[in-house]
Every structure is written in C-alpha cells, then in structure tokens.
Amino acid sequence: MSHMDKIDESGGQMESRADERSSYLRGGIASVVLTVIAVLAVVSDVLPDWAAWTTIAVAGILQAVAQLHWFLHIRLHGQAWEDLQLIFFTILILVLMVGGTIWVMGDLTARMM
C-alpha cells in the first residue's frame, strides 16, 4: 500500500487532495500549452490571417473547456441538472453578446465603406 492509498481519519482526504493537485497541475499545463499555441500563431507570422484567427478561436474554446473541467470540476455527466442549465444559459448569453457585437461591428464597417 503506497502513501497515496492510505486513508486517514477524515475519510480519505489524502487521496482526494492528491487527485485535486493532479487535476490542477494537468489544467495548468493544458492552459499554458494552449496559451503558447495562440501566441505562436500570432507571433510566428507563418499562418495566413484566417488560419491564425481560427487557431486563436479553437485555442480559446479549448481553454474555456479546460478551465471548466480541471479547475471548476464541471463535467457533463454526474452533474446536477440545475448546474448544467446554468452553464448552458451562460454559454447562450456569451454567444449572443459576442455574435451581436460582431454583427454590429460588421454593419458599422459596411456603413463606413
């Protein structure tokens, strides 16, 4: 039995702390890697503009998923339905805000030309 398998008096808190640290470490590494990918897409100037924008968008979406999964410990299965409804509503509001902003800015650009 290793030190990770030991259960203390508080009901196995040693194991859950190790799992939590491991989760935070994986999330931190994933966040750094995704950030570096987005920065390199811009700084390297190798990709065409559309590919750089696509890379940044995909890295941003994956970054949000990583934050939800590894730091907030939100999963799509085994989660309370009310929690998932809150997350879906938040995503809907964000999509409406970003989509509306892009629509308005595009319309303003068209009117200026």
From TrEMBL:
The keyword Magnesium does not apply. GO terms for cellular component: cytochrome o ubiquinol oxidase complex; plasma membrane. Keywords: Cell membrane, Membrane, Transmembrane, Transmembrane helix. It is found in: Cell membrane. The keyword Transcription regulation does not apply. Cytochrome bo(3) ubiquinol terminal oxidase is the component of the aerobic respiratory chain of E.coli that predominates when cells are grown at high aeration. Has proton pump activity across the membrane in addition to electron transfer, pumping 2 protons/electron. Heterooctamer of two A chains, two B chains, two C chains and two D chains. Belongs to the cytochrome c oxidase bacterial subunit 4 family. This is Cytochrome bo(3) ubiquinol oxidase subunit 4. It comes from Palleronia salina.
